[in-house]
Amino acid sequence: MHKKLDEFLHIPKILRDKYQLDESFNLFKVLRGSSDEVRLHSRFLAELLDPQGSHGLGPEYLIHFVGEVLRLDGFDCESAFVLKEWNDIDILIRNKNGQAIILENKIYAHDQENQLHRYYQIVNDLSYEDKNIHIVYLTLDGKKASNQSLNGIPDEILSESYTDISYKFDISKWLKLCRKEAVEKPELRESITQYLNLVSELTHTNQSASFMKELESWFEKELINGRPVGMLDALLIAKEKYHAKRIEVFREAIFERISGLSFNQNESTVTLSDCEDFVAKNDSFDIWVYPIAGEERLQVGFINNHGACYFSVWCSQKGDKTIYDAARNAINTSNFSSYNKSNQWSAGWKYLSDPIVLSASTDENLQKLSDNNYLNSLADTVAQELKAIVLALNKDSMLKSLF
Predict the structure, then answer these.
(1) Which of 352, 60, 95, 62 is nearest to 182 (CA)?
(2) Mind listing the pLDDT tens digit for each residue in 289-325?
(3) What does R_g of the chain's alpha carbons equal in angstroms?
(4) Is the N end or the C end of the chain the one with fewer CB atoms within 10 Å?
(5) 3-state helix, strand, coil in the chain (%, to 5)
(6) Looking at residue 182, what DSSP letter applies?
(7) Quick check: 100 and 133 in contact, CB under 8 A?
């Protein structure tokens, strides 16, 4: 079996080695994880879309986006302004004529319950008419948002004002138009070029034309000669299973290091099956613990979602503002003042310094996850942060007095 598999993959490997393009320096990959939805992709796209953006080209990029990508007539780009991460909406474009575009950006993250409906409701509550609210769902390949995310949005909005677009085709095409407009701005042109290269890598369109042509020819010959090309499907399944097992090794390594803490098993990733769902369905990877044993109103977690790993101190501001404020104060007066104030559901959060995206089945990620030394080092980092923030919260006398 191994011999047949080696023979089957021999030609693709030779072709890849022959035509593979050298990896060039990419500032976006150096500074941020390549699939970081919030800190990289949404912010860069929002900057280009913003008529007041630092690109200095006014509404030109937004006009191209609205006209060429969304094919939306009558949207006033001249008076438009762009909000980034406002009320959890990745990008919100509004104008003085009462029109709005909600852009939800998904790289690897899964949809949340009623997510797009919630965003629609937020904008609708600002007195925007249904006919003037446009919802755009952006993914790598242009897939439609899930029913659980869309549920509750009026049918007329979904039929007339909902659009799903892709990085692979729509954003790539738009970025090339943007690059043409930047012909006299070399720094901007180079930034767009590097970002385009990153998009090509994420969408697997960065292979040379010669490589793809010969690979297609090889595939055709294998098919005509009756070779089992269906083996490629089996390889993808094996890749997912291997990925899930490495995530399970990582999870177990963290659990071993924080065994003295009080776990929230119901909300944590605790089994190999959970890890398989995380990889196959872009589900969330979570480890949650209670700083005050058994007290569910305050929790500390390590999460991989929305293309990034981060730590969070969960506490509902609406559920118990007193605990929320005390937790926030405990964070500010400890060594964790670098934690950001997030929203009404989190008293603080901080990104993991390592840019790895655990859910991405890229060669680079899988090679990292295959290295036990790397995994153990990463587990050490996660465990130390969780234990330290739990200790800081547990030692705060004002916070403890509330339980």
Answers:
(1) 60
(2) 999 887 888 999 999 876 678 899 998 766 688 888 8
(3) 24
(4) N
(5) 50, 15, 35
(6) T
(7) yes
Measured distance CA(357)–CA(188) in Å, rounded: 27
pLDDT tens, position by position, 76-129: 999 999 999 898 899 999 999 999 999 999 887 667 778 999 999 999 999 999
Burial of 15 (0-12, 13-18, 19+ CB in 10 A): buried
Token match 């659990």: residue? 255
Which H helix or E strand runs over 162? strand 162-166
234 neighbors 9 (Cβ within 8 angstroms): no
Q: For residue 21, which amino acid is it?
A: L
What is the structure's pLDDT at 343? 64
CA–CA distance, 255 with 190 (Å, rounded to integer): 44
How far apart are the C-alpha atoms of 48 and 197, rounded to whole Å?
A: 16
In whole angstroms, give the CA distance from residue 64 to residue 113: 32
Closest-CA residue to 91 (of 53, 147, 144, 34) = 53
Q: Is the pTM of this model over 0.85?
A: no
Element (H, E) at 100: strand 100-105
Among 156, 186, 177, 166, smallest CA distance to 106 is for: 166
Token duo for residue 187? 């720094």
Q: Work out the angle at residue 87's Cα, subtended by the Cα atoms of residues 85 and 89, and round it to the nearest 5 degrees.
A: 50
Token duo for residue 370? 């295959």
Classify the C-alpha dihedral 109-111-117-121 as positive or negative.
negative
What pairs with residue 94 in β-bridges? 81, 100
- Amino acid letter at 33? G
Cα–Cα dist 236/219, whole Å: 16
Rounded-to-integer distance, Cα 74 and Cα 400, Å: 56
